[in-house]
Design a protein that fits this description.
With 501 residues, the protein is mostly beta strands. Helix content is 10%, strand content 42%. The protein has helices at 3-6, 21-32, 51-55, 63-77, 262-269, 438-442, and strands spanning 15-16, 42-43, 45-46, 82-90, 106-115, 121-133, 139-144, 149-154, 157-162, 167-168, 187-192, 209-217, 229-240, 243-253, 288-299, 307-318, 326-340, 346-355, 389-390, 393-394, 404-413, 419-429, 452-465, 468-481, 487-500. The protein has an 18-stranded antiparallel barrel.
Length: 501
């Protein structure tokens, strides 16, 4: 099955990472243009899953579709043997989005891609280093192997182990359950390779579908439960042309001194490990910090105009029975449209809104009232006091708890793949404030300790010169703290990537 994609290479690693905004736009444009029906809201994407797009005949399609198809085919069928990427930033924005943007002042990454000639296994070895300034005015350098993994194909499944970035959902500026905002958690798991429909008549209506699941371990430098486990599972399917639905589930459970047997896993899996907000009220099987919900993206639900709506609803708890629905939900919604202009240029505009207050549509109330809006409990937990975070960064939306973001962006893609992108984001961060207790400090990531409003404007230029890719960004941020004067700062970053084919 893999020969059409990788027969000429012995270094085709099995996954496409969630780091290329242009590639994601090209893939979505091809699917929206009816070239093929492929699920695209679960990243990393198995390379083989994109076979229908690669093999599609687009000779009778408009020039913009053909240009996007050529870029996708080149990216999928001609993977690089090795990659070297350097990023330099001035005052990088801690609020990330779907892209390969730096979060430190200096970052260096080197990777080697591996694969067998029989396409039975593949992987990636990646070394990373970054330098950043600390509060005491000193500079700290860290090294790690994030992005490295190995995978073995068994039938239509990839069994993998390593530390891979993930992005679950249709959002451009964030996801409420899993993003690449935090460092990837080392894990093992499996993914469905080709998103082929079921043969069974009862399930055939689901259309093309994929499934991913993983089990990882958080680091030991946690004050709540060192070496807690992180479980995740997601299924996405396309029951109707243009409509993609995703169901997601993650949970923190176990940890040093905590139950981690099959009984505790089952009770976590079935939503029976949440009993009130009292950490001393120990449920059978132990505590778990759970997230679950759904999302959808629907292209042209009314009429034939080129547009799509998308939304995501993620709850932080379940009612505790086998048929329970997630509740205390956060929300995200957006709309996007695309069109081709003169000279083969292609445009895509989007508007997105997200709110990480639970029950965000209700009136504000005390934290004990689970039916009221609450600003401080989305990514926190009564037992896992360090929260839904890894190395001090939240694994969901980069706003962390109690945030609200409105964003809009316009992307121009030229026929050769050069692009311009304008992005404007307004964020209300940490709307619930915080106290200065040690417990609250532990429960919040450093990037969102401050209560403030932010207006950020970014302009990015992407250029490709053979194996060399250059991205240049210039941004401006206006910050209005809850206490203090309004501030205006300029920022920017540069990313240079070199690929050896």
């Amino acid at each position: 099955m893999l020969t059409a994609l990788t027969s000429t290479t012995a270094h085709a690693h099995p996954y496409i990472n969630p780091d290329d905004r242009l590639l994601r736009a090209d893939l979505q444009y091809l699917v929206d243009s009816g070239v093929a029906e492929v699920p695209l809201t679960t990243w990393p994407l198995p390379r083989e899953q994109l076979r229908p797009l690669v093999e599609a005949d687009v000779s009778d399609q408009p020039a913009a579709v053909q240009a996007a198809h050529n870029r996708v085919v080149s990216r999928i069928t001609q993977p690089s043997r090795a990659e070297l990427t350097a990023r330099v930033a001035s005052d990088p924005d801690p609020r990330t989005y779907f892209s390969d943007v730096p979060i430190h002042e200096q970052e260096l990454e080197a990777a080697v891609n591996l694969g067998s000639s029989s396409e039975r296994w593949g992987g990636r070895i990646q070394a990373n280093a970054h330098r950043h300034d600390r509060d005491d005015a000193s500079t700290k350098t860290e090294t790690y192997l994030d992005g490295s993994y190995a995978a073995v194909r068994l039938g239509n499944w990839l069994v993998h182990g390593g530390a891979q970035d993930r992005w679950w959902g249709p959002g451009s500026e964030g996801s409420l359950i899993l993003t690449d905002n935090a460092r990837p958690v080392p894990s093992v798991g499996f993914d469905r390779v080709a998103a082929e429909p079921f043969d069974l008549p009862v399930l055939r209506w689901l259309g093309p579908w994929n499934l991913t699941t993983f089990l990882g371990e958080l680091d030991g430098d946690r004050k709540d439960a060192p070496y807690a486990k992180l479980f995740g599972m997601r299924v996405a399917f396309r029951p109707y042309s243009g409509l993609e639905i995703g169901l997601s589930r993650t949970a923190q459970w176990g940890g040093e001194g905590r139950p981690e047997d099959l009984n505790s896993f089952w009770r976590m899996f079935t939503g029976q490990s949440n009993i009130g907000d009292d950490p001393d009220n120990e449920p059978e099987g132990g505590h778990a910090n759970q997230f679950a919900g759904w999302d959808l993206r629907w292209a042209s639900p009314l009429g034939t105009a080129p547009y799509a709506i998308y939304m995501q609803l993620i709850g932080i708890d379940e009612a505790g029975n086998y048929l329970s629905w997630p509740y205390q939900n956060m929300g995200l919604a957006g709309i996007e449209t695309w069109w081709a202009g003169a000279g083969g240029n292609r445009y895509r505009w989007h508007f997105e809104a997200a709110d990480t207050a639970t029950n965000f549509w209700r009136e504000e109330g005390p934290s004990s009232d689970r039916s009221a809006r609450n600003y401080n409990n989305a990514y926190t937990h009564s037992f896992y006091e360090d929260g839904y975070r890894y190395h001090d960064r939240v694994q969901g939306h980069s706003m962390d708890s109690g945030g609200q973001m409105f964003s809009t962006g316009l992307q121009l893609v030229e026929p050769k793949g050069y692009y311009w992108e304008l992005l404007v984001r307004y964020t209300q961060q940490n709307r619930g404030g915080r106290d200065d207790t040690d417990r609250d400090v532990k429960r919040r990531a450093p990037a969102v300790m401050e209560q403030a409003d932010f207006l950020v404007i970014d302009i990015t230029r992407g250029l490709h010169y053979g194996p060399l890719t250059i991205e240049l960004n210039l941004g401006a941020e206006q910050k209005a703290p809850a206490e203090g004067e309004r501030e205006l700062e300029m920022r920017g970053w540069t990313r240079v990537s070199w690929d050896l084919f």
